[in-house]
Amino acid sequence: MIPILVAGGCALFIALWGTPLFIRFLVAKKYGQFIRDDGPTSHSTKRGTPTMGGAVIIFAVLTGYAIAHAVTRSWPTPSGLLVLFLMAGLGAVGFADDFTKISRQRSLGLTPKAKLTGQFLIATVFAVLALQFPDSAGLTPASLNISFIRDLPINLAFAGTGVGIVLFAIWSNFLVAAWSNGVNLTDGLDGLATGATIIFAGAYVLISFWQWRQSCVTSLSSLCYTARDPLDTAVVAAAIVGACIGFLWWNTSPAKIFMGDTGSLALGGALAGLTIVSRTEILGAIIGGLFVIISLSVIIQVGSFKMTGKRVFRMAPLQHHFELKGWGEVTIVVRFWIVAALCAATGMGIFYLDAIPRLAS
Fold it and tell me: What are the strands, taking DSSP E only, across 88-161?
């Protein structure tokens, strides 16, 4: 429990006090946000707001994690390091995108091809490494099985281990792309994506801690959990919670800084990594239901317009639809946070219901 508290507390402190320093640096360099011309007109006032704040979140998470292990004199685990690698790697892709926008004075950054290539390379390296590093029980950070609350009897190696690794890499790329783009699409209003990420990562602190308490390494129950390093996963999740809370202090409306693609891609990668190493890939879609809903609103909007020439929403992603309906920004953000909390509570309830037979035995 101590490393969880230390990681979260240190990350919060670093983000809370480091963000205003980074804001001053960005203002001095005139690194401001460019606003899309086809967005809500109310967003024009946000033009020039410092961006790339995700760099502070990444630094706070990495430092909080390192301090937690230094304080407890414990070694980092493959699962924790892999999630941080995925987070930092996608953050680097996002940073390149943000810096391109700033340096070229335009609202478009990297080309879609370059962005997808970067995401693909990082996700593929993560997928290959996640199937390595078996512990004394033979558990690796990830599994070739698709997972819900734990691994399901759907093994990707049905046609051989080599094919299984390729299919797992494809599955991991899908999850990474889905979560990183989901957070990116959600990051359209002040504090919205940051608050939703806090709720998601907070749920995974509890899930991973419970998995650690009921690990198959120490429990003989048939309902135990086979995650390799659940306690360290909880440490990473706690560091993300702390960093995002500290950043939200400055990111809430009216935002003094935006996380940019640096933050949204990094956090999306972290969320994908948490679901994979905790063996809860499908459950994660329920816990992070807000991100799923917002992503679906874009898919529905694009699909409807291409097939019928009509739009379902006034604007996508979904938060902009409500903006054009006259809802205030703070009202939308708070109500969407409520939806995010309800989704997380539902996912946690499903996870907990699986534990009832064990508690009753």
Answer: 145-147, 151-155
The model's confidence at residue 360, banded by pLDDT at 50, 70 and 90, is: very low
Q: Which CA distances in Å does 314 have to 28, 44, 175, 276, 328?
A: 37, 18, 28, 35, 16
Residue 259 and residue 29 in contact, taking contact as beta carbons nearer than 8 Å: no
What is the model's pLDDT at position 29? 80
| 31 conformational bin, left if phi > 0, alpha if psi -120 to 50, beta if neither | beta
DSSP annotation of 154:
E
User: What pairs with residue 103 in β-bridges?
Assistant: none
What is the rounded CA–CA span in Å between residue 27 and residue 40?
Answer: 24
Reduced to 3 states (helix: H, G, I; strand: E, B; else coil), residue 131 is coil
Q: Are strands 145-147 and 151-155 parallel, antiparallel or unpaired?
A: antiparallel
pLDDT tens across 231-255, in order? 999 999 999 999 999 999 999 999 9
| CA neighbours closer than 13 Å in the CB half-sphere of residue 203 | 30
The Cα–Cα gap between 124 and 140 comes to 16
Handedness of CA 344, 346, 347, 351 (dihedral sign): positive
Domains of the chain, residue spans: 2-288
C-alpha span between 143 and 130 (Å, rounded): 8
Check pLDDT > 80 for residue 106: no
Q: How far apart are CA 258 and CA 281, in angstroms?
A: 28
Q: Give yes or no for residue 129 having a pLDDT over 70.
A: yes
In whole angstroms, give the CA distance from residue 142 to residue 154: 14
Q: At residue 75, what are phi and psi to the nearest 5 degrees?
A: -90, 145
First to last CA, the chain: 25
Answer for the pair 347, 286: CB distance below 8 angstroms, yes or no. Answer: yes
316 phi and psi, to 5 degrees?
Answer: -115, 150
Q: What's the pLDDT score for residue 358? A: 53
User: Cα–Cα distance between 138 and 174 in angstroms, integer?
Assistant: 26
